[in-house]
Amino acid sequence: MASNQPQRGDRSVRDLEVNPLFSREPMTVPRYALPDGEMEPATAYQVVHDELMLDGNARLNLATFVTTWAEPQARRLMAECAEKNMIDKDEYPQTAELELRCVHMLARLWHAADPRRVTGCSTTGSSEAAMLAGLALKRRWQHRRRAQGRPADRPNLVMGVNVQVCWEKFADYFEVEPRYVPMEGDRYHLSPAAAVERCDENTIGVVTILGSTFDGSYEPVAEVAAALDDLRERTGLDVPIHVDGASGAMIAPFLDTHLVWDFRLPRVASINTSGHKYGLVMPGVGWVVWRDADALPDDLVFHVNYLGGRMPTFALNFSRPGAQVIAQYYNFLRLGFDGYRRVQRTCRDVATRLAAQIAALGPFELITNGGQAPVFAFRLREEITNFTVFDVSIALREHGWLVPAYTFPPNRTDLSVLRIVVRNGFSHDLADLLLEDIRRALPRLHRQHEPHRDPGDAGAFAHGIKT
Ligand SMILES: Cc1ncc(COP(=O)(O)O)c(C=O)c1O
């Protein structure tokens, strides 16, 4: 949402001066009003292009989980499909077919008992996927309650306080009480006992995260499932699990094959992932898959006929680009299981090596080591009182690196960390350059008499962490 109102006297409300470009006549164009007339395409292109030079260098952005590199063939396919509207399944049946194939591939990757029985769809990202999965949990619970003749007006959802902001939005937008499990001591995510403690007859589900946004750690999905099985035996309460695998659902199947976190657990009703994170597609595409038709109540699916045919749709928006879905299919085809495993292995190797090297520098202590999602968080040792993680973040910005610093949520708001997300394209070589820049920044930071920055300065983008 464009919320920054231009101020009077502010330089930005001046018209944009388009000085001779390609030797054309100087001209000005308004910044915030539609220009009166037309201009040459080449001039318009250059104006926009030049403004965008001020954006950051995506490859040096270690805050985002989102893919910033794609093969030329993927880019070409995306450009070829720029006009394809995902919703127009009648007009673009083959795009719809490729979407379906991706859903089936994910269902197999996530060990659905019968991949032909799963339902699922692409979305704009994990946030929309979370809304759809949450709605399915809510609607199933409502049906169950109404069938029992019981009130269905006070649903709640249990999750760790470390959930990404999309779950907070889901609870708020769709009027579900969020029941957050706080962090305690060295536990930075959900624990089975704390989750079960908060469940009651109004609980629509428990969200578990594979690859916490705060530190990259996997939540113990199987243990939460076992604790909920036990709850069912003791009380009859039958609470389903949704796995938010925004990043981890595209890591664990390739690198942690022994880990049981997916549809192998009968309690897991649905799983989401971001195709544009470790699915390796440029933004924005996400996926949500339900174990079977029972997990997605049919009355949430709308059938429309105005595009020709009778189209089932379950989505928050209508029109949406098809290019990313096609790029996802391209990646699946191009990389296969082995290719994905190699890419994710490299990310994890870079993350764990860099984490160990940062820990060896002296002032830092690891919270995680990049051995789950290739993401790690680290703090300053307690004895360091003359500079903060926020100072470190700013110092690295001077070298072009975007490494966010933020405080953890309750009950660890005393803890401030830096976080590094290693993505495809962040090589050992780039990691060495970053390490060198951290090393170079340290003597100056050590010479500081007192901290210069505090959590109030934590403006850096932290990918959905509430700062
Ligand atoms: C665990 C988790 N869930 C959901 C999201 C939201 O994902 P998206 O950006 O695809 O909407 C993120 C984003 O970082 C995340 O880390």
UniProtKB/TrEMBL annotation:
Catalytic activity: L-glutamate + H(+) = 4-aminobutanoate + CO2
One Pfam short name: Pyridoxal_deC
A single GO molecular function term of this UniProt record: glutamate decarboxylase activity
Enzyme Commission number: 4.1.1.15
Entry-linked InterPro entries: Glutamate_decarboxylase, PyrdxlP-dep_de-COase, PyrdxlP-dep_Trfase, PyrdxlP-dep_Trfase_major
Keywords: Decarboxylase, Lyase, Pyridoxal phosphate
Cofactor: pyridoxal 5'-phosphate
Residues covered by region (Disordered): 447-467
NCBIfam families recorded: Glu-decarb-GAD
Similarity comment: Belongs to the group II decarboxylase family.
PANTHER family referenced in this protein's UniProt entry, alphabetically: GLUTAMATE DECARBOXYLASE (PTHR43321)
Record's protein name: Glutamate decarboxylase
Organism from which the protein derives: Actinoallomurus acaciae
